[in-house]
Amino acid sequence: MTFPPLNEQMDIIRRGVAEIVPEEALVQKIEKSLSTQAPLKVKLGCDPSRPDLHLGHSVVLRKLRQFQDLGHQAILIVGDFTGMIGDPSGKSKTRPPLSLDETRKNGQSYFEQATKILSTKKIQMLYNSEWLGKMSFVDVIGLASRYTVARMLERDEFEKRYKAGEPISVHEFLYPLAQAMDSVAIEADVELGGTDQKFNLLVGRDIQREYKLAPQVAIMLPILPGTDGIEKMSKSLDNYIGIDESPKEIFGKTLSIPDKLIYDYFLLATNVDLTELQSIKAQLDDPNTNPRDLKRRLARELVALYHSDEAALAAQDEFDRIFVKKDLPDEIPEVTLATGNGTVGIIKLLTETKLVSSNGEARRMIDQGGVSVDGERISDDKATIAIRDGIVIKVGKRKFIRIRKS
């Protein structure tokens, strides 16, 4: 294929990037690619411990897709071997390791979801056990001799734990070295990662030099905050928007984000072009703009990305019907209950219908005013509900259940 000119490529690559180390080396690599008509090898390591992808993961995947669209080779490295070590990045303690079977299964799920963003052309998926699993103990000692403990302790997580007297296992030092060997094995030109991966990506540059290879360029992307606007997006914190979720879930969750995140979500998670981004920023700076209108557009953009334009409009219409006009959704899941005497405690009702995962969550939702039965808010967690055929239970903003009596 014919590669776009250097300036065009750099403009696209720079969008939404936190740091490029070093940028001048990336320019040189692209110039060489243009002169030889050979694509760059662009690497992204896949964490096999988290197979369910959300918008936070999409930030680096979308950058990889941009490299694909520019004509370069995307290489997904599934860390099935490194997953058995456990990446300490951003962790105050060791992450539990996984079995090889678990990492393989999760890696396949990751790939299936990632191809909602990535093109299936110009992509390779490799498992790093293919080369790391073949290393002998002599090879590992040789690799370890190429990096010092002092350099390892420069890593923020290790430094904090060392000063706090918290244990650091020797095998954790092997993780960045093993990830660096991935870059050696495929002779990566570029590696992508979040800002929390900077140390690992830079170790990759050092180890490539040790093996007489041209060092990769490290490109770091910002960490996308979750819908709470505070913590990193995470399924465990329930502040995520999953790329596999339904249109109504994506739409509704997007409308729940704080106004301060609107621009960042447009920049990092959508295809809105740079000219339009400038217009969005100007609107957000204008006190006469209602941020809700831009948030609705953001929600439509995200639903359209992972479903379709039609699904985006349908999700908006359904949201308006339920939350603006206070109607019920067209389709409500039904649960059949054997009620005995015809009444049931609200806590038991919520857990048995799986609207909540625990008694504690049920009480929290009631305390927060998030539970209603046939439109009537329940404020007492000891309330008993008379079960009639067809009553509707609502929890939070988007969970509905219609009860059927057996």
Kindly describe this structure.
With 406 residues, the chain is an alpha/beta fold. It has three domains: 6-221, HUPs (Rossmann fold), CATH 3.40.50.620; 247-324, Tyrosyl-Transfer RNA Synthetase (Orthogonal Bundle); 334-405, Structural Genomics Hypothetical 15.5 Kd Protein In mrcA-pckA Intergenic Region, Chain A (Roll). The protein contains 17 helices and 13 strands. The chain has helices at residues 6-14, 23-36, 55-69, 100-114, 129-132, 137-144, 149-152, 156-163, 170-186, 198-210, 247-255, 262-269, 274-285, 291-306, 309-324, 346-352, 359-367; strands spanning 19-21, 41-46, 73-78, 123-127, 190-194, 217-221, 334-337, 343-345, 371-373, 376-377, 384-386, 392-395, 399-405. The radius of gyration is 25 Å and the shape is globular. The mean pLDDT is 89.
Average the pLDDT over all residues and give the rounded result: 89
By CATH, the superfamily of the largest domain comes out as HUPs
Helix content: 40-55%
Individual helix count: 17
Write down the Rg.
Answer: 25 Å
Poorly predicted residue ranges: none
What's the order of the H and E elements?
Answer: HEHEHEHEHHHHHEHEHHHHHEEHHEEEEE
Give the number of DSSP strands. Answer: 13
